[in-house]
Amino acid sequence: MPMRILAESDALPLTASIQCPACGSAHVAQVLGDNGGVSYVCTACGHSWS
Ligand SMILES: [Zn+2]
Questions:
Q1: Of 17, 27, 41, 46, which is the most exposed, with the fewest CB atoms less than 10 Å away?
Q2: How remote is the CA of residue 48 from the centroid of ligand 1, in Å?
């Protein structure tokens, strides 16, 4: 069961390693926010974060 701590030194937003912080799924879509920032949406549980 992969658990990833995003506060570690590998905090760079590498899409391939992003996992949902809510359910741990790797089915994460990268979306652009209104302010030009990048947000993430889990396609498994619907959780969104940035
Ligand atoms: Zn999720």
A1: 46
A2: 8
Q: What does each of the 50 residues of the chain score in pLDDT, given as a tens digit?
A: 666 655 544 455 555 578 999 999 999 999 987 788 889 999 999 999 98
CA of 28 to the centre of ligand 1 (A): 8
Q: What is the pTM of this model?
A: 0.60
Residues with CB under 5 A from ligand 1 (ion): 20, 22-23, 25, 42, 44-45, 47
Distance of CA 41 from the midpoint of ligand 1 (Å): 8
Q: Give CA–CA dist 34/21, Å, rounded.
A: 22
